[in-house]
Amino acid sequence: MRKKYVYFFDEGNAEMRDLLGGKGANLCEMTRIGLPVPPGFVISTEACIHYFENGKKFPEELWDQVMAALARVESETGKKFGDEERPLLVSVRSGAKVSMPGMMDTVLNLGLNDETVETLSRIAGNQRFAYDCYRRFMQMFGNVVMEVKKDLFEHALSDLKDKKGYKYDTELTPVDLRELVDTFKGIVKKESGQEFPSQPLKQLEMAIRAVFESWYNPRAITYRKINEIPETLGTAVNVQTMVFGNMGENSGTGVAFTRDPSTGEKKLYGEYLLNAQGEDVVAGIRTPQPLEKLKDELLEAYDKLAGIMDTLEQHYEDMQDLEFTIEEGKLYMLQTRVGKRTAAAALKIAVDMVEEGLIDKKTAVMRIDPSQLDQLLHPCIDPNADFQVLTKGLNASPGAAMGKVVFHADTAEEMGKAGEMVILVRWETTPDDIHGLVQSQGILTSHGGMTSHAAVVARGMGKPCVCGAEEVKIDYASKSCRVKDVVIREGDIITIDGTTGRVILGEVPLIPPMINEDFRRLLAWADEIRKLGVRANADTPEDAARSRDFEAEGIGLCRTEHMFMAEDRLPHVQAAILAKTDEERAEPLQKLLKMQKEDFAAILKAMNGLPVTIRLLDPPLHEFLPNLGDLRVEVAELKHRGASLEELAAKEELLANVRTLSEANPMLGLRGCRLGITRPDIYQMQVRAIFEAACDVVEEGYEPVVEVMIPLVGIDKELALLKESTEKVIHQVFEERGIRIGYKIGTMIELPRAALTADEIAKHAEFFSFGTNDLTQTTFGFSRDDAEGKFIPEYVELGILEKNPFEVLDTEGVGKLIDMAVKLSRQVRPDIKLGVCGEHGGEPKSIKFCHQVGLTYVSCSPFRVPLARLAAAQAVVEEEREVFIDK
Ligand code: PEP
Ligand code: MG
């Protein structure tokens, strides 16, 4: 059977994105619901895949099907390719399943040649218009299809203007444009070695091929990598009858959103240009008008558009981003798709749509990309800060950013990768700048509107962006820009505020933003849906308080080593480690006990009524002592300067001690419970501090909920032993204080052996917390510090690893161990509490896995708590809907 590769717009629908690409599927859907879409057809992504799988050949059936569809377009429009009376002109556009704005290629006005241009001129009664279309077509086709450099055409255009003494393109006469067309033909011939094709069918064939080819252009490849879009999808090709927005002052073209993509406010939002063609709006050559003005200029078209926008939103039940063209007063729809939006807008739109009865709460929860929530937790400028605003542009993407000014995407990439904070400053950005945008803290452009490339991309990436700051005069050659009389050079620091559009010279204090009402409501819905608990990893009372603000349900990991590192404690820690006898050790331990008690009391108070999992000391002792190499140098120096014998002896003893404690492989050495077993007094001190603190706060009227966690257990007897000694201390404290408090003792599962023998370990543990950082290290045999810097990026590049397993949980390996441990532990203790406290606890995909294997909670850094609450709810809805939510 012959395979179908070509779909007329009334043969598809919105569900067919895989096959017809997003743009194609939506053009079909709009046609299906009766909106004014110029006739056309879609060549499926399967044809593109076939093309690349078969040595860049079209499928055999393709051309006949294209011809049949073209015949239908001709009959519906009454126009014909190459016709002398009514020539058909088409646009040829790419369109993958997932929108990749500006990444692939488009050709407009295809079908023009020396004859049809004359006819067009006659029909339109406008020679200038016809020749302007023709030269634009040659420019686009020459560049996209025949791979002639864009600049050559641009230069020819400026040369001609210079020669004629013109300032604007609009001053070019039909005669000038005709001359330009001839020049362009010459350029194409010279650069490509081929004549510019005059046959419309030949043009069409070449354009289709070029669109397929654009799937693998460098910027599309980069974009796919950043956005994790599979290479295998391929692009569809949309061939559509041209309508003209440049037929005069009752024609125009624009882009619009059904709600404000920056704030989410329900209002018509967009920009348009009269007497212009599609690319003019986004290219930023002329400054577009806000959509409301269209009401005054072309009321009928405006009303029609407003009606269609409403229809589209009701139909798709989501905010739409659309493109339209008005040809001599008549409105045509050229595209609709789900609109990209900032996190703040996403929240507002989701919450409003639930209120409007358009969607339900579960759908609302699914509408927010958890990683986008980070945007809302971006810093903003401290309102109390004192600073002078240098200039203002458009508030294109919210949040504030500070960094060194750079003027080129390559520099931004280079400096960004070297760990510098940079702000990319450009006249306008293009898809070719994408690698620099990724590495910048924020983007400032001196041109372009709210829908310009920089604005759209920044919003998608959640980076602050100020656009169209026209006072910024950039001189790329000298790598500097001037704002009024201030000169800013590459490397100078500026702050931009994408929420207000302000640009400030120098550094300004930034503060974390507040969670607004929409945020709280949506998360409250997520809480109703989710089954996983969400706790925070917090080591200080401040972090604990922040966790509560973010509505964490407890602390899943309080690492106690950070308390040891504080300046006022380190000497006591060192004294305790270096003491030779129990008596000598008693004093520094006593001091530490007092300090730890204060730490724990403050945290327990902050978390009043909620569980706090306190982990006993984990890192090896030498981490608290001076560095071995430094000590060697110090000893040599003392010798060299003839220091006293006493001083030298003390230093040498310290050196010997550190040498004894230092390890070849500290990650696998004397740490965690091994330390607790071989140096029991430290753990005993910590347990005493925890429970004395708990008793203290009980006396103050608080309700502490304590969970003691023993790290790095690999053998059940380790835990049995430490549990016994821990309980002994707890009961001593209870006796002494005459208070009894409920508590739990549990362990971390961070070694493969612990997971494999989880049933044995569970006999002694009331809870497990999977320490997926160490479990990943020990399962892979990767030392994180070495692997992430040295070879994981290459492994990902080569496809050996899909993702860095320290960021996204390796469900196949590490996940299998977790799943096994969950099942084994529940066999012996069905009510065991199971959590995750490695960094994966704050990563959406990993959270989904935690839900699937039936964990009790995830624990992550306080700022990730909102994200985790949302991701946990999405895991439930996804399971219910059994759909894979793709990006
Ligand atoms: C872990 O290993 O996952 C963990 C939480 O412990 P740490 O990162 O402190 O080793
Ligand atoms: Mg660990």
TrEMBL record:
Keywords: ATP-binding, Kinase, Magnesium, Metal-binding, Nucleotide-binding, Pyruvate, Transferase. Residues 421-501 form the PEP-utilising enzyme mobile domain. NCBIfam families: PRK05878.1 (NF004531), pyru_phos_dikin (TIGR01828). The active site is at H453 (tele-phosphohistidine intermediate), C837 (proton donor). It is an enzyme of class 2 (transferase). Gene3D superfamilies: 1.20.80.30, ATP-grasp fold, A domain (3.30.1490.20), ATP-grasp fold, B domain (3.30.470.20), Phosphoenolpyruvate-binding domains (3.20.20.60), Phosphohistidine domain (3.50.30.10), Pyruvate Phosphate Dikinase, domain 2 (1.10.189.10). This is Pyruvate, phosphate dikinase. Belongs to the PEP-utilizing enzyme family. Mg(2+) binds at E750, D774. Substrate binds at R559, R615, E750, G771, T772, N773, D774. The keyword ATP-binding applies. Residues 18-55, 57-293, 301-356 form the Pyruvate phosphate dikinase AMP/ATP-binding domain. Its cofactor is Mg(2+). It comes from Candidatus Hakubella thermalkaliphila. It catalyses: pyruvate + phosphate + ATP = phosphoenolpyruvate + AMP + diphosphate + H(+). It comes from the Bacteria. Residues 517-875 form the PEP-utilising enzyme C-terminal domain. InterPro entries: ATP_grasp_subdomain_1 (IPR013815), PEP-util_enz_mobile_dom (IPR008279), PEP_util_AS (IPR018274), PEP_util_C (IPR000121), PEP_util_CS (IPR023151), Phosphohistidine_dom_sf (IPR036637), PPDK_AMP/ATP-bd (IPR002192), Pyruvate_phosphate_dikinase (IPR010121). GO terms for molecular function: ATP binding; kinase activity; metal ion binding; pyruvate, phosphate dikinase activity.
